[in-house]
Amino acid sequence: MTTPTAERDEPAASAPLISVRDLTVSYHVARTGATLTAVEGVNLDVHEGEFVTVLGPSGCGKTTVMNVVAGLVAPTSGEVLVDGRPVTGPGPDRAVVFQDYALLPWRTVFDNVKFGLEMQKHLKGDGWRDRVQEAIELVGLSGFENSYPKELSGGMQQRVGLARAIVAEPRILLMDEPLGAVDALTREVMRDEIEKLIAATGKTVLFITHSIEEAILLGDRIVVFKSHPGAIKEVIETKLARPRSERSVQSDPRFLELRDHLWDALQAEATEAAVAGGS
Ligand SMILES: Nc1ncnc2c1ncn2[C@@H]1O[C@H](COP(=O)(O)OP(=O)(O)OP(=O)(O)O)[C@@H](O)[C@H]1O
Ligand SMILES: [Mg+2]
């Protein structure tokens, strides 16, 4: 198809904020003594302010790559640079929104969001209370400061996770299927909210999803992974005007072209994975 695939050889306007270079990650599986190569030879540059979505079959290494960028998993070979410096651990410039919310059940909404500052040791002075309150307002949870996670819906818990991630004002948001566990309607509403929030704050985002539509609606570029071994299959520029509402975009020929292309790409991957798994 005519979709331009970014081969990463076009001249960059500026140095990338995130640079994944020839990244390979192998896990040692203690139970079997085997070594499993999760991803091999991954190269990806993400520029400041870019929203990059990541699609790919289950187990192809999407979370692994994100965890290396977050500083939670070390590369086996290759490296990840953030702002030109190798990542050696978590830092205040990066925050993660986990699929399963990962909230602290014994803490209120306010204290869960406050945890985002505690992790970055940002609690000096008095200003932190205002920052926590602002983050809670930004995700639309004013009035629920004293509620506990179990008193909230899934979508609301996800918002707490988002507020905790943005409270320390990281430059980079790493989002691992952040809408995976909410119902379809909430998902649509939250997707719009995330888009507005990111546009307002100018953050750089790496966003893993299983939804083709979501990858197109949110991404400036879409990274498609393949399995066996996990690697990047292609990178596609969305080239759709913003703002993009689900309804307006669905009749756009470019949206339909991208959707068809991604369906075919992922189906081919799923078929190959089934063949590889059966052999
Ligand atoms: N800590 C670990 N120890 C051993 N193997 C692991 C570990 N974490 C992940 N793996 C393996 O690495 C591979 C990639 O896993 P990863 O979680 O990165 O995939 P994914 O693309 O995020 O999948 P999904 O879409 O299901 O979330 C899988 O085969 C998985 O079993
Ligand atoms: Mg994953």
**Element order: H for helix, E for strand:** EEEHEEEHHHEHEHEEHH
Give every kind of bound small molecule, once each.
adenosine-5'-triphosphate, magnesium ion
The percent of residues in helical segments reads 25-40%
Task: Please tally the β strands and state the result.
Answer: 10
Uncertain regions spanning at least 5 consecutive residues:
1-11
Question: Which structural class fits the helix and strand makeup?
Answer: alpha/beta
- Beta-strand portion reads 15-25%
Number of helices: 8
Rg, rounded, reads 19 Å
How far apart are the termini? Answer: 31 Å
Widest beta sheet: strand line-up: 6-7-8-3-9-10
Brief synopsis:
Keywords: ATP-binding, Nucleotide-binding, Transport. The protein is 35% helix and 23% strand.
Structure write-up:
- The chain has 279 residues and is α/β, with parallel strands linked by helices.
- It has a domain at 100-169.
- The chain contains eight helices and ten strands.
- The chain has helices at 62-70, 109-118, 127-138, 154-166, 184-201, 212-218, 246-249, 253-278, and strands at residues 18-29, 34-46, 51-55, 77-82, 85-86, 94-97, 172-176, 204-208, 221-226, 231-237.
- The strands form two sheets. The protein has a six-stranded mixed β-sheet with strand order 6-7-8-3-9-10, sandwiched between helices. A four-stranded antiparallel β-sheet has the order 2-1-4-5, covered by helices on one side.
- α2 packs parallel to α4 (154-166) and α3 (127-138) packs across α4.
- Residues 1-11 have low confidence and may be disordered.
- The protein binds adenosine-5'-triphosphate (ATP) and magnesium ion (MG).
- Residues 62-63, 176 line the site of magnesium ion.
